[in-house]
Design goal:
Elements: H1 2-37, H2 40-47, H3 53-64, H4 70-79, H5 84-111, E1 132-135, E2 141-143, E3 153-158, H6 164-172, H7 174-179, E4 182-188, H8 192-202, E5 207-210, H9 215-219, H10 226-230, H11 232-243, E6 264-268, E7 274-279, H12 289-299
Parallel strand pairs: 3-4, 4-5
Antiparallel strand pairs: 1-2, 1-5, 3-6, 6-7
Helix pairs in contact: 1-2, 1-3, 1-5, 3-11
InterPro entries: PXL2A/B/C, Thioredoxin-like_sf
GO biological process, one term: prostaglandin biosynthetic process
GO molecular function: prostaglandin F synthase activity
Length: 303
């Protein structure tokens, strides 16, 4: 009986791997063809969205294995790796990942994009309080320096397309942040309409300032990347969210959003000195509240 169950699971795994690789390979072949047929700008603006089909295929793959994450799927195939069919299909899976990411890295190279470039304000440097930004709620101009002082550290959360969970974690740990006299300030490069929609939909209570010229983003050396947004691992993460029934925030049609800009978390002391520096390495990369609190505590005078 146990042998029959193992054979059935083996067959399910092989078929799930095969179907996923076929679907992913077809999407990649189509994308390569479309890139060759027109300009890079046309492909990025009008055609790259077809790669979202990956998340559908990946979610189906996870569901068929009755798991919610890629790491869980890997544990399943490890149990059957002694079977040659499983090994062959896993190798096909991994080769698809290599080919997928190489294609996207090529797009970054064509566009001369990079996720990081030399920053003007490193860890230990000072961010000027004279930078003028726009209050997302009132539309009024305010200086960043108006948030300095008052014996409080200032946590700057520089947004990109993917930070709702991070903001929720900060809000749920507000008591711990208050205990260390940390004030949270959200920075976005978007427009007022998009910012107000985001604030309303997320219920975020923190102040938000707009930096449309991306002066603060540039000061911290935050770049852009097509590869990191559409990479195999990023899209698989979106599939994991899909399997877990997580809802994605939909951007209104009249709001143009640059999904390729990277964000990060940076903490300033009351003089504007950078005491914590975390540029995001992937779209979903954010520090934990524990990491933030530890860094702030260690940087406090007298520690």
């Amino acid at each position: 009986m146990a042998a029959e169950v193992n054979l059935l699971q083996d067959a399910i795994l092989v078929k799930a791997l095969e179907d996923f690789v076929i679907a992913g390979r077809e999407l990649l072949i189509k994308a390569v063809k479309e890139r060759q047929e027109g300009s890079i700008q046309e492909f990025i603006s009008k055609k790259i969205g077809s790669l979202l089909g990956f998340t559908v295929a990946a979610a189906d793959f996870l569901n068929r294995l009755s798991v919610k994450k890629r790491k869980d799927a890997e544990e399943v195939w490890k149990k059957f790796y002694h079977c040659s069919d499983v090994r062959d299909h896993v190798e096909d899976f991994l080769q698809l990942e290599v080919d997928w990411d190489e294609f996207l890295k090529g797009l970054d190279k064509e566009l001369n994009l990079c996720e990081r470039f030399p920053c003007q304000v490193p860890l230990g440097g000072y961010l000027s309080g004279e930078v003028t930004l726009t209050d997302a709620k009132s539309g009024q101009s305010v200086s960043l320096g108006s948030y300095f002082g008052k014996d409080k550290s200032l946590l700057l959360v520089l947004l990109r397309h993917f930070a709702r969970d991070h903001m929720a974690e900060l809000e749920s740990n507000q008591g711990l942040l208050d205990a260390l006299s940390v004030r949270v300030l959200v920075i976005s490069f978007g427009c007022c309409e998009g910012a107000r929609y985001w604030l309303e939909e997320t219920g975020c209570k923190y102040d938000m300032l707009l930096d449309p010229e991306r002066r603060i983003y540039n000061a911290f050396g935050l770049g852009s990347s097509v590869y990191k947004v559409w990479s195999f691992s990023s899209l698989f993460l979106y599939a994991e969210y899909k399997v877990s029934n997580c809802q994605f925030l939909q951007t209104p049609a009249n709001v143009v959003n640059d999904i390729y800009q990277f964000g990060g978390d940076f903490v300033l002391d009351d003089d504007g000195k950078v005491i914590y520096f975390h540029p995001s390495k992937t779209p979903a990369d954010r520090p934990t509240v524990t990491a933030l609190l530890t860094a702030i505590s260690e940087a406090s005078p007298g520690h």
